């Protein structure tokens, strides 16, 4: 690593992986409950487990994004972070707020609004924490020696995510208004500004791993950002079909939902083209594999599967069913989880000076986690399609349908075991790297780290 202050990213990455492991625990609780074995209901009711599972997803991904920013911004700005002490304070306060929120869920202290269940008093602490984070990376970029498209795009994505958190804090007595603005947070995060964060990190990794000129890669980034804004913002309309919003959202949501896959397809083509064009044979091939995997699976999960059930004619039947879970799991994994994993695998050898990116462990972690997630997506698809047919076409009662599709969750849990095995291998590989060292590169050629580690 070039700058000592980049080591603060380690705290966020370690916390991110720990929270992911906790999310998996609650995922298994939900999976067994869907199979009819809700044995923990008296201690952890289904709604509590579900809220914890989904909110842990948001928290560990945000933690991964923050860690990535603390690494990328000093590197792109060519200067140390303005304050390591305050970055550590920001990490600690973020963890404390997260722990209190998750504990609150188990004591029925929440708002009850899907994905935004965090209690209102904690919202204000989240805002303060994020402002501190943005202040640190913003000041670092402002005082830096250079401004790059990659760094600016990452900062714009992070600032936009912070601003779009605010509509979710507005109180409405009217359910339609509340749902309308809740999607400003949920949709415009995951299908809008988070794509800017993903695009910036994808650009950064491709610059470092492929050897393609920065100008070439960042020109693609402009195109992706443009398509993301065009399709993602108006694509919010596919959440407005049946909540009492005006009918014109049927047309707007349908058209721009069909365009949303273009942004992810652009990312996939962009990543593959840059990989083939690059003449640099970077030794950290597993980081490149996670990077390319992110680009491809984000198109499949977020792009293709998203469009497949958000067109009005289809969503009329699939709305509120497990088909959404099919899309959501592969979309979050492909678009955001994999880019965090790619950053971790790229960063850790430089932080620790250890060559642990080769060998069977990182390879099997990549294979098992991705095969497991794809299998889980298939299980959700079969269960979701069966649910749609039995509920919406045959007219069976909701609980009767849930009992009928329990068998599909056996396949889901088995796939989750495979996925979890891959994640645990990744975590163990992370632990083996050890803690960051104090060495700082004076040369811009980071491959010296890899050469020294290999020797």
Automatic annotation (TrEMBL):
It is a multi-pass membrane protein. Residues 172-455 form the Cytochrome oxidase subunit I profile domain. GO terms for cellular component: membrane. The keyword Transmembrane helix applies. The chain crosses the membrane at residues 51-72, 84-104, 124-142, 154-172, 184-207, 219-242, 248-274, 286-310, 330-348, 360-389, 409-431. This is Cbb3-type cytochrome c oxidase subunit I. It comes from the Bacteria. PANTHER family: CYTOCHROME C OXIDASE SUBUNIT 1, NITRIC OXIDE REDUCTASE SUBUNIT B. GO terms for biological process: aerobic respiration; electron transport coupled proton transport; respiratory electron transport chain. It is found in: Membrane. Belongs to the heme-copper respiratory oxidase family. Its main location: membrane.
């Amino acid at each position: 690593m070039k700058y000592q202050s980049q080591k603060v990213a380690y705290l966020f990455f370690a916390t991110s992986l720990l929270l992911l492991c906790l999310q998996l625990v609650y995922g298994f609780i939900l999976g067994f409950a869907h199979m009819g074995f809700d044995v923990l209901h008296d201690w952890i009711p289904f709604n509590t487990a579900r809220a914890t599972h989904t909110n842990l997803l948001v928290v560990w991904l945000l933690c991964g994004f923050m860690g990535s920013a603390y690494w990328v911004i000093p590197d792109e700005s060519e200067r140390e972070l303005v304050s390591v002490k305050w970055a550590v304070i920001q990490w600690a306060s973020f963890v404390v707020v997260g722990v209190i929120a998750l504990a609150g869920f188990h004591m029925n202290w929440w708002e009850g609004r899907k994905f935004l269940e965090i209690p209102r008093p904690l919202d204000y602490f989240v805002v303060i924490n994020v402002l501190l984070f943005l202040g640190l990376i913003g000041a670092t970029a402002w005082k830096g020696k250079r401004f790059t498209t990659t760094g600016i795009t990452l900062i714009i994505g992070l600032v936009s995510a912070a601003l779009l958190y605010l509509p979710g804090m507005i109180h409405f007595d009217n359910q339609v208004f509340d749902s309308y603005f809740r999607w400003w947070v949920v949709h415009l995060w995951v299908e809008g500004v988070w794509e800017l964060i993903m695009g910036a990190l994808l650009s950064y990794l491709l610059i470092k791993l492929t050897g393609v000129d920065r100008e070439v890669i960042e020109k693609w980034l402009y195109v992706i950002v443009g398509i993301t804004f065009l399709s993602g913002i108006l694509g919010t309309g596919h959440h407005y079909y049946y909540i009492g919003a005006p009918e014109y959202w049927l047309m707007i949501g349908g058209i721009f939902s069909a365009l949303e896959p273009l942004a992810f397809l652009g990312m996939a083509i962009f990543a593959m083209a840059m990989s083939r064009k690059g003449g640099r044979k970077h030794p950290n091939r597993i980081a490149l594999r996670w990077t390319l995997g992110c680009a491809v699976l984000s198109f499949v999960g977020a792009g293709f599967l998203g469009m497949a059930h958000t067109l009005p004619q289809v969503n009329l039947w699939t709305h509120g069913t497990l088909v959404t879970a099919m899309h959501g799991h592969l979309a979050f994994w492909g678009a955001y989880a994999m880019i965090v994993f790619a950053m971790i695998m790229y960063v850790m050898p430089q932080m620790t000076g250890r060559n642990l990116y080769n060998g069977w462990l990182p390879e099997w972690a990549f294979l098992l986690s991705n095969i497991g997630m794809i299998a889980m997506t298939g299980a959700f698809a079969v269960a979701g399609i069966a649910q749609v047919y039995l509920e919406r076409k045959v007219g069976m009662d909701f609980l009767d349908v849930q009992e009928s599709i329990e068998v599909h969750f056996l396949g889901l849990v088995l796939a989750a075991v495979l996925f979890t095995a891959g994640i645990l291998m990744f975590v163990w590989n992370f632990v083996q790297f050890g803690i960051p060292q104090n060495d700082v590169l004076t040369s811009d050629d980071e491959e010296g780290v890899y050469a020294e580690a290999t020797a």
